[in-house]
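Subject line: Sequence and fold of a protein, written as structure tokens
Enclosed: The protein record, placed directly beneath this head.
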Amino acid sequence: MYDYLAIDIGASGGRHILGWVEEGRLRLEEVYRFPNGVIQTDQGLVWDIEALTKEVCRGIRRCGELGKAPRTLAIDTWGVDYVLLDKEGREIPPVYAYRNDRTLAVRQLAEERLPFPALYSRTGIQRQDFNTIYQLLCDRIAGRLEGASHFLMIPDYLAYRLTERMKNEYTNATTSSLVNAGTGAWDPELLEQLAIPSSLFLPLSQPGETVGEFTRGMQEYAGFSARVVLCATHDTASAVAACPLDGRTAYISSGTWSLVGTERERPAISEGSRRYNFTNEGGIGRRFRVLKNIMGTWLFQNIRRCLGSRYSYDDMMRLAMQSSWTQQFDVNHPSLTAPDDMLAAVKDLLGRPEAKLGDILNSAYHSLAAAYADTVREIEKITGDTMDRVVIVGGGSKDAYLNRLTAQYTGLPVFTGLQEATATGNILAQLMADQGLSLQQARALAQSSFDMKEVTA
């Protein structure tokens, strides 16, 4: 019965979710959950990739212990970050986190060699200081590339640890700003201009391709063998794969980041899309996710951390709803990326050091919803398509207050219901590979399996 396992890992935690089809509906069961997070070191913020690998393996073993061994599994994570390996296939530490500030000074150097308008015209990827292209330039300057033979993004690396087979998956690779949007392959001219060795990279593989079977050691540890396949390994690409989309639907994948966009068969690369800082990331079926990254639940996660976790997220929502204070701030301001004190950072942006907690929270809610609405209007401008509804998916879609404000600010029908969109999209990719479903059939299965409800503004 338990045919497929989605391993869905975000910046703050990961989960192992089993999926199977029963009576024409997709069923999901979470079997393992673990925390994740960056570590502060003398080299800045890094990932404990060994601990992450161990948690992936423990969750797989848990499936066997429960007597629910899957036939196939796939791994999705956030984008941008990667692991360098030497010629023996061993990790070259550290594995830097995208919130590490090492790239701040390097972007200017990169743009002296390659002005951003020229870069954007080739890749369609928005300007962000932590983009892989700038991280790799840091590595080159530091001499880290001299001993490197392989480049694997985080989900590629985790799949490699299970199988000893290396793949570079397409959707996650597009977040690097090194993939040409026209060819769908690594851009050799960009690599040459920045003196990044092209030998680090493998030809890109598409969702649905097989990585390999478990190694003998992994089989012994798990108590069974399974085939590792590629889903859309960028978590947002997996989430979007599950969405009921057409050319007039905007989506919000709501999590640590909020990804606001639409799906197209061609990228939207223009002066307007560059000015509005839109990105054109790869999607399943070689589609494009035209979207913008907006601060998401990271705001509330870090406000809660400042409070010593004395308040639940529901408590924080109620405090916000009790406030009538709606002053807005820029949710994408650089000061909010990795502050020591999120409350203090928001107060500074508001210019209100005396602000009460409920007022700060309500301001954050209204600021996010307004940012969503602004982005939907920008999508209409750069694509020429009128959006007639918004679909909110992901863990953040449980926030009824934010959903209601989004409907209010956009003035559009807003639908929610796919809280497990990323895991669902991960499993749908496995179904497409295993049973030959089309993307349309897979999305229809998701829509019939999970109730989508309209939000009342």
The chain has two domains: 4-233, 243-419+435-457. Residues 357-383 form the longest helix (27 residues).
